[in-house]
Write a structure and sequence with these properties.
Strand content: 15-25%
Structural class: alpha/beta
Largest sheet: 7 strands, parallel
Distance between the termini: 36 Å
CATH class: Alpha Beta
Radius of gyration: 17 Å
Number of domains: 1
Oligomer: single chain
Number of helices: 7
Bound molecules: NADP nicotinamide-adenine-dinucleotide phosphate
CATH topology: Rossmann fold
CATH superfamily: NAD(P)-binding Rossmann-like Domain
Number of strands: 7
CATH architecture: 3-Layer(aba) Sandwich
Length: about 240
Amino acid sequence: MLRGQKVVIIGGSSGIGLESAKQIIAQGAEVIIASRSEDKLRNAKEQLGVSATTFTLDITQEQQVQSFFDKVGQFDHLVVSAAETFGGPFLQTDTTQARQLFENKFWGQYYAAKYGAPKITPNGSITLFSGVVAYKSMNGSSILGAVNAAVSNLGKTLALELAPLRVNIVSPGIIDTPSRSNMLEETRNHFYASVANKLPVKRIGRTEDVAKSVLYLIQNSFVTGTVLHVEGGHILA
Ligand SMILES: NC(=O)c1ccc[n+]([C@@H]2O[C@H](COP(=O)([O-])OP(=O)(O)OC[C@H]3O[C@@H](n4cnc5c(N)ncnc54)[C@H](OP(=O)(O)O)[C@@H]3O)[C@@H](O)[C@H]2O)c1
C-alpha cells in the first residue's frame, strides 16, 4: 500500500502516466500530475478524482521545472513519463528535430531528476522512462534509440549518486497509447498487428502492463539501478 504517500507523475495526463496514476491512487496515495495541455490535465483529473492535483508544466523548460518542485515541496516518489517522440530515417531527419528529441525526452528527465531529487523523502524513488529502441536497433529509430540509451545510463548512475533514494528505469516496448493518435487508424492498426505477430506474446502492450511495472518499482525497496523491460519479448524477436 502507498497510503499517506505523495507521488509526482510528470506526463501523468495521458497513456502510461495516466494509467500509473490510477494504479497508484488505488494503492492509497495522493498523486500530482503535470503536463503542458490544460485540456489533457482536466480530462485526467475527471478520471482520477479527488486524490489527484494537476499542474501545467513544460518539462523542457528548466526554470519551470525548478519552480514546479519548489511549489510541490516534499514528496515520496517521482515518475517521469513525459515525452513527445518521433522516428524517421537518419539522413532525412533535420538536425534541429533530432536535438528537439533530446530536449524533450532526455533533458526533460534530467531536469526532473535534478530538481525533484532534493525534495524526495529518503525512502523514496525516481522512475525514468527509456524504450525498447535503445536495446533493439530498428530502422528509423537511430535518434530515439540514442535518447533512450542516454536516459537508461543516466538513471543507473543516479541510483549510485542519489542513494539511498532509489532510481529505476522502465523500458516499454510497443504500447497502445494516445502517443500514436496522429497516425491514420488503419496505418496504426497495421503497425500494431505486424509488431504483435513478431512478438513471443503475440500482442502489443497495454498501458496497464507498464503501469504495473511502475508500481512495482515504487513499492519494492530492494530494487534500484534497474532497467525494467516491459516489451513482450521484443528484444528477442
Ligand atoms: N507508447 C509506446 O509505444 C512507448 C514505447 C516506448 C517508450 N515509451 C515511452 O513511455 C513514456 C510514456 O509514453 P506514452 O505512450 O504514455 O505517451 P503519451 O500517451 O503521449 O503521454 C505522454 C505524456 O507526456 C506529456 N508531455 C509530453 N511532452 C511534455 C513536455 N514537454 N512537458 C510536460 N509534459 C509533456 C503529455 O502531456 P501534454 O501533451 O499535456 O504535455 C502526456 O501526458 C514516454 O517516455 C515514451 O517515450 C512509449
